[in-house]
What does this fold into?
Amino acid sequence: MPPTIEKLMKQSAEGHDVSSHLQDLKRAVLLDGIETDESGMSPHRVYIWLILLQAPLMPYSEYGALLARGASPAYSKINDDVHRTLATDPLFLRRVSQNSISRILNSIAWAMYDRTQASTSKSKITTTTTTKSKPTETPSPSAQRKPSTPPASAPEPENIPLPPSPSLGRRPSPYVQGMNVLAAPLLYVSRSEPQAYTLLHSLLTREIPSYVTPTMPGVHAGLTLLDKCLSILDPPLYNHLTSKSLSAASYAFPSVATLSACTPPLPEVIRLWDFLFAYGPHLNVLAVVAQLVLMRDRLLGSVSPGKELRSFPGLRARRVVDMVVAFVGRLEGGREGRAVYKELVRHTHVK
It folds into this structure.
């Protein structure tokens, strides 16, 4: 009999390898869901997300070292976005402070900046070495830590804002549009900032890296794929929208870039993310298609569907997930659909 969610969490917290049971956990999330209260909160969810993303929890000392560096090179952009992050959501505002948002975004901006610098330096070293005709050595990968439960007494950062930092000049920003909205649900479900940081770092660097590079190629690819998927799954709706010059790029950028986190209510976003973290964030494109199909009658009956698309109706996670599962079956059932689905799986890592 497969382990229950509670058993898997306990095994993970004790340092056991639970990777062989990931499929069982994914099925449990899909079929049974995660028990929550009316605000969408569950004491287990953050640990389940860490397991699903196979994200080793960052020790507080490492997170503290990032905080100690102060404001990131993207501080100004981040500061502008902090005040706009789910600014009308009372559940979020009661649980997450603006200082927490600022700290986690500046920390991730430092990490992204360091990755870019390291990549640039490695490229220069490789080029120099190749020119000199000397073989390069590949460092051995470090052992991964297993996801674990942090100490209940883990200290929290001081509740103070970060000081301003020097500008980036001509260097590309390590912070892009939408990162603040992606961080919001993670901060909401986490029990500490290091947990939220671990989830955000894993999401941005391993799951959707092409969504958060300066030109956001993954987001643009996702918008193109949204049009392709809609044309296969609901040709009349697709034709109606295109007849009004409405491509996905004109109305769905926020929904694709934020994995639908821009569409309230927040508890429904979190339930949708349970599914996306279990089966892949690439499926959010189909989740947006599902939201369009749920608006189908309104859109087809409107002479100005663009006005209807300025804000999506409240998210209905269970209905959307059921539709996405059905959409995957339909896409994989035809030659054109299979080709599009392969693109969909890859688009979060395009360059």
Notes: The chain has a mean pLDDT of 86.
